[in-house]
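Hi all, posting the design record for the shared folder.

TITLE: backbone redesign
STEP: 1 of 1
STRUCTURE INPUT:
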């Protein structure tokens, strides 16, 4: 399974093992979700200040959050789906607040690595169309997250 992942660490704080974990969990999830070969995703690691800017500008919520996903496959009004050709599938962008990941790891009493893997997977599932606005959707998405994390071996400590 070949998922192309573009990493940008604006915080310059992540260790190689941490980005490797995110890469591995995303590859694992792509395989479980049967994503086409050479699909692309971008993962950007930011601080709370930057994710708050993004959250305010794009979601009209002026507060930091843990992860934001921008799915590039969602068609907006008056957009037409491109079918065929050899164009790789571009899933979208996942933006993770390293600050929030650290805070939540402490709050939930598990490792920073586990929280980082969880947030990356959560953002990835959003790119694939999973959501948690409605109760039934939330149940489905959260169960899928748990199943993938458990099978991968990234359980809560």
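Okay, here is what came back for every position:
SEQUENCE:
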């Amino acid at each position: 399974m070949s998922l192309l992942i573009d990493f940008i660490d604006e915080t310059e704080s992540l260790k190689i093992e941490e980005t490797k974990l995110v890469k591995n969990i995303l590859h694992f999830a792509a395989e479980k979700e049967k994503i086409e070969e050479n699909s692309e995703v971008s993962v950007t690691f930011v601080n709370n200040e930057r994710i708050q800017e993004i959250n305010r500008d794009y979601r009209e919520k002026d507060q930091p959050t843990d992860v934001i996903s921008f799915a590039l496959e969602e068609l907006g009004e008056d957009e037409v789906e491109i079918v065929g050709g050899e164009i790789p599938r571009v899933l979208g962008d996942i933006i993770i607040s390293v600050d929030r990941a650290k805070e939540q790891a402490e709050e939930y009493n598990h490792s920073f690595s586990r929280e980082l893997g969880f947030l990356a997977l959560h953002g990835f599932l959003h790119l694939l169309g999973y959501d948690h606005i409605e109760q039934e959707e939330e149940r489905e998405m959260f169960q899928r997250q748990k199943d993938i994390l458990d099978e991968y071996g990234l359980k809560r400590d």
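COMMENT: Strands lie at 3-9, 39-46, 67-71, 90-97.
Let me know if anyone wants the other runs.
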